[in-house]
């Protein structure tokens, strides 16, 4: 864990860098890192007294390690990152890195509201072993986050990040869709390798693939509900909350898409839509964690103000899995 | 054209029917009519003084007749139906029926705000030769249009319609997404054969296909922007404004999807997204009509309050076609 | 009632007028008509078989005539105008005119989707006795209804209308807020006298009053929920659904505001908010009509697809009145 | 400034408290603290290298101290609190406390995403001299923030806060309107004294005043644009970004409202709407800070990703002040 002195020194250096002109990042030779594949965005387990339970985290990772995932997203929206301190965010990534085999990619969420804090967190994430940084759009002032502001923000972060950057657009949480023209501009940055798009607008996903086709830029679907459709229009993988509980099935859907077995893919995709909606939009992280408990993982409680599901909600959640033959 | 006396008699009969209990429609034996395929939603040509130009309408149809469309949608949103009188709506359908070969399906938009008016218009559309009625959700009181209200509305219409009914959900115009549970309930009606879904949410489209899989219910994508993705999740065709100008290409995309040539389909789909957005969401019917002028059809003016494009808009519109190699 | 021949002749004349340049309307000398005061937007009573019940309409008007209203709005959103035929719309206005004393203003809703139809309906409304036309924004293509389109639309209507025009912005139904800059431009037209604003944004209402202060332009609040606040920022009256059931109280609130008794006004306003929300946003016209039945008027059924309230809804509606001491 | 050891000890104690049952807060006897009046939400000045400029902060406070404000809001949305570290947030409040006369209330924004972090920050804010804590709704998971979750969150915070709590609803930033029923429930808590409501819906403000009338609960308008209207329906003051530049005028508007001079109040309110919108919704904090530079305060740059205004925007901003006679 980083002590306050290290932080302070990191900050001093970064302030200088942030004041200089853009363009310090020297690279661009050769292809960008390949991030294609399926990633579960891991949840952060908490004890009954709301402390991070690192033991349970490792147990979950151990179980998830049996599936052919490309890697893991840590501190995505499902990781309750806004509820963690900076130290906890880094410690969770540290532990995941230790628990993962070296060939699994670790994508660490490092987005903060300010550009400076995002740079600091990104650098720190690299130091504790993240392979790439997944950077959510700043959102509190989303009314001012036009293309120019976002291009400036991500360019600074990518300039100063020691690891590749993945853009992250999740309008359901942020109220903000990273504009396509900003994505296209940013795709030309040598240290920006792709985007996780959770908006579910497949026309937009196709357009991004099309307009970045000369940039070695990779698109990940942000949810299992539109995974097949995203593959069909050129996405190369997905970050899927559902993969925390139906890991085999999501990987199977990937395989069917990649091998062109579209009919079987369609049938499987159909059976995943309701369970996926249940653990995302419909019941959120409390729904995902409850389902993890059912499937042999540790879900456990969320930090407040997120609440446990009511008995009625739990029943509806279960029905979304049983009616599709998963429970 | 229907005279006022005929209308009056039609109305009297329908009032009686509307007051009786639901269920008069006797059918259900055998499969529903097959509506799979591509349909251009034809525009309504106007003269310089804003009269319907039936001659230009026929010329357009003659040119469009060279493509392997399944049929034509008349009086969809692109037909400016809210700007036409009831007589004009029927006369347009009459003329299209006369101009079309018998094997082309004619889907006529017959939605009105009230259930009663919708029934009347649907019956009249059948009388003038429509093969099926495409019924948009009522929208002025969309705050009250919950599932119960919409199920009641469509059931009444389907009960009394002499021709099959296609549901039509177009939230960009109506502010209302026909709820999935209402669609599932309505799919069981013997006289409701499918839905045109213009919302572009492919997760929703997949779910509708999945939950109506035992009902012989058909889903048409409402726009060319997500046509490939819709096929991938089980749609059987599309109603595509873009087919009014790039008819061959939209039919080609259909063929590539149906024959499993997904890579070529993806490349073609990509090049259609910007042109499609340009003639729909971005520049609306004025954009579509302007483009028709470029492609050898008669576009002409819209009725007020729709305005012509400015020179700047026209240039942006053109760029969306030239940058994708279509002009 | 207008026969088809009259309509046809009206249309011919108007087509010519619409093709000519703007500016035919000759007036502008002297002050615009004073529309200040309270108006109930009357409902349209229907029989059990959904015919317009003109007798009940007259009975309601007779009872409402005992309150010091400035006049009545006929064919506003609460009048279910989208469910009426053109003939019914005119006949309702005809009957209201006959039932009203000459000193009560009759504001008739004459908005249609097309400019041409709106002009025709406005002219006809004048012919059957409307004192002013209240013209709702066209809405089906609201994505294209920018300021330029709306200014053109309303200018044409005002140019050709024999009676003064009141703008009508009701975003809850239309998805469209008439932009302030368009309102300011239109306020300069000699035949446009004011706006009914139902959006409830009192900052906007204040700004409209401020920016039209040199134009003799009058603002009416579109709902009783923000009537006091609207008076406080310069509105001169209100069109209030609630006045159909609590007519004395709404007129009392007007009087308290006009005489500067703000403390009593505030207390009364407070007790009207929940009942007002109940008969508008919360339960819509079915809620308003049910309440009319309780208060000694004829409410009766709505036309489909509007549905009656459930027993639970009815109870909640009643509670909003009883808990504020009105039932 | 709090060192890490103090933080750690604070946290330990709070964890225990958070695990216990609700209800530790012992008070309720006597009236709640009076928060009526006008508050500028102070901006956080930054140097050219984006460090907090405490000297400029004090200079601004010194100048603002000449107006009859009730107090100051520190770390509201205009304070760029999401861009500050915890240490900076506390240090800013510390400095403001030192700079303020004892009779000026200091309302400190202490909202964080998690309940635990919010409690910790609230306690710390009390320790550095805040008179009350203004707690914004958590927002990243706004889809899950129903009344139950928010009631639980605020109850925990109020139970454990040594200083009174003011609720803070600002949907433009958070995508979330604190539901009226939650406000009513929370108004009964002895340590919750009021709400700052920035939504601008005066019907809602009136309803909150009405339904909490027996609770000694105070409502502050969150913007100068609807200040007069808010007073008219029962608010007792306002937190107004505009007061950072037009402090005398906002206080004058308060005085006119409190003394019942509604006509003059209306005229003044009218002239404040455009300037207010300019420094809030239209141009945000960059607009507010630019205006502060014009009016003799130190505005200076924002932290990234907020950007400076373009020359065009600056001109439009200036026009909103000059056209109303303020520049």
TrEMBL record, chains A, B, C, D:
SUPFAM superfamilies: Aldolase. One of its GO terms (molecular function) is 4-hydroxy-tetrahydrodipicolinate synthase activity. It is an enzyme of class 4 (lyase). One of its GO terms (biological process) is glyoxylate catabolic process. It comes from the Eukaryota. The keyword Metal-binding does not apply. Its main location: mitochondrion. Keywords: Lyase, Mitochondrion, Schiff base, Transit peptide. Its EC number is 4.1.3.16. It is found in: Mitochondrion. GO terms for cellular component: mitochondrion. It catalyses: (4R)-4-hydroxy-2-oxoglutarate = glyoxylate + pyruvate; (4S)-4-hydroxy-2-oxoglutarate = glyoxylate + pyruvate. Pyruvate binds at residue 239. The active site is at 168 (proton donor/acceptor), 196 (schiff-base intermediate with substrate). Catalyzes the final step in the metabolic pathway of hydroxyproline. Belongs to the DapA family. Homotetramer. This is 4-hydroxy-2-oxoglutarate aldolase, mitochondrial. It comes from Balaenoptera acutorostrata (Common minke whale). The gene is HOGA1.
């Amino acid at each position: 864990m980083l002590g306050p002195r290290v932080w302070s020194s990191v900050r001093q250096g970064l302030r200088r860098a942030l004041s200089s002109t853009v363009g310090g990042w020297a690279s661009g030779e050769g292809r960008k890192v390949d991030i294609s594949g399926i990633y579960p965005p891991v949840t952060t387990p908490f004890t009954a007294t709301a402390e991070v339970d690192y033991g349970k985290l490792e147990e979950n990772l151990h179980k998830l390690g049996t599936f052919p995932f490309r890697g893991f997203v840590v501190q995505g929206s499902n990781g309750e990152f806004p509820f963690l301190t900076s130290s906890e965010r880094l410690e969770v990534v540290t532990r995941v890195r230790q628990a993962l085999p070296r060939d699994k990619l670790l994508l660490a969420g490092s987005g903060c509201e300010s550009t400076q804090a995002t740079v600091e967190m990104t650098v720190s994430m690299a130091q504790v072993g993240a392979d790439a940084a997944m950077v959510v759009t700043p959102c509190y002032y989303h009314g001012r986050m036009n293309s120019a502001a976002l291009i400036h923000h991500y360019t600074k972060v990518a300039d100063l990040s020691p690891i590749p950057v993945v853009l992250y657009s999740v309008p359901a949480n942020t109220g903000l869709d990273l504009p396509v023209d900003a994505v296209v501009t940013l795709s030309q940055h040598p240290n920006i390798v792709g985007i996780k798009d959770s908006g579910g607008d497949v026309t937009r996903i196709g357009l991004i693939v099309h307009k970045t086709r000369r940039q070695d830029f990779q698109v990940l679907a942000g949810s299992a509900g539109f995974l097949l459709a995203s593959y069909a229009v050129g996405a190369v993988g997905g970050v899927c909350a559902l993969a925390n509980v139906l890991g085999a099935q999501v990987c199977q859907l990937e395989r069917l898409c990649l091998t062109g077995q579209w009919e079987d893919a369609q049938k499987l995709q159909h059976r995943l839509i309701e369970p996926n909606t249940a653990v995302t939009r419909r019941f959120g992280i409390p729904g995902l964690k409850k389902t993890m408990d059912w499937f042999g993982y540790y879900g456990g409680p969320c930090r407040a103000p997120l609440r446990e599901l009511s008995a009625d909600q739990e029943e509806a959640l279960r029905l979304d899995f049983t009616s599709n033959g998963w429970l």
